[in-house]
Amino acid sequence: MAVGPGALPDFFEIPGVRIGIASAGIKKPGRKDVVVFELAEGSRTAGVFTKNQFCAAPVVVAKEHLKNDSPRYLLINTGNANAGTGSQGMQDALESCNALASEVNCSASHVLPFSTGVIGEPLPVSKIKSALPAALENLMSAHWPEAASGIMTTDTRPKGATVEVLVEGKPVRISGISKGAGMIRPNMATMLAFVATDAPIAQDVLQQLLTEAVERSFNRITIDSDTSTNDACILTATGQADVTAMTDLNQSEWLNFRAALQDLMQELAHAIVRDGEGATKFVEVRVEQAADRQEALDVAYTIAHSPLVKTALFASDPNWGRILAAVGRAEIESLDVNGIDIYLNDVCIVERGGRAVSYTEEAGQAVMDQEEILIRVVLRRGQVKDQVWTTDLSHEYVRINAEYRT
Hints:
- It is a single chain.
- It is built from 11 helices and 15 strands.
- It is α+β, with helices and mostly antiparallel strands.
- It folds into 2 domains: about 15-275, L-amino peptidase D-ALA esterase/amidase (4-Layer Sandwich); about 280-390, ArgJ beta chain, C-terminal domain (Ubiquitin-like (UB roll), Roll), CATH 3.10.20.
- The protein has a 6-stranded mixed sheet with strand order 13-12-11-14-10-15. Strands 3-9-8-7-6 form a 5-stranded mixed sheet, with helices on both faces. Strands 1-2-4-5 form a 4-stranded mixed sheet, sandwiched between helices.
């Protein structure tokens, strides 16, 4: 199941990035489950990682390597998360880096490892090592679609986005892929995302750009409120576009580039929600006129995480009392419930704390029958607005996660 169209775009190739894919048979024989990104010398790379304190061994290693060196290679495997694996997991992550480094004659610290899949099982390092020659043999700049498929786990379809921006009248490109469908909760989510641009961007600016973009995209999505052990979002700038360093641009062009990057990240994040495990709805929960951003997000996430709201969405049941109850338990100090309005798309369901006089069950039903729904809450406490994106909760979600290891 997935909501909306899911075709991959025709990716813009990024000068300075080549991608190779191979099959290690980690979980399923013949499945392409190892992906290698080769980054041109001089590229800059920034990363944002999970805040789960049981973070996986590859997360620990990637953060350490990213701190010490400019990466030349990204090594990704699916089918095994190498999380909850203790000291052996650390050794396995490092051994994978060493294996790739020896194949390409670089330092192991120039390799960032990423793993996704089942938690608590030893990483089959020998299988990954045996697949590396094949992955390196087919390195190509056009392999973005293959990489998008190669990093999938319970995803039903690959996810990608691409854009070309004019800077000083010349094209600057951004392309990216993401994976994730379950165990999705910000900070970040059980997701991986790899984005690259040929823009020339200094390291500190690149990290700031990524952090801002993630906060507006991947840190605004939730499927099931579970923060994973393996999340990572990587942004690489190869600097091979024939334009001035981005920090030297005039403000208009700089803001245009930043907006394009944020839009692309949001598109990748939305693709994860649309492909949420068992999802039949794509839902935006928007809170307006909050006193501050945290208040807006507290209300939005309380609604988005409510099993009662999510199951009503799956049933296409306009049971608006569940939304009203979620707002009331969001622990907002001194909340005046008599000042709150709630909407389903443009249909007002709650007005000044009670059922809207204009509301009809037929109007609510017409909204809930749609695949894409906006739940909008007006608090009348300030001027801040924020939103999160989520899904419904279906029988299929339970089946997928009940059978995940079988």
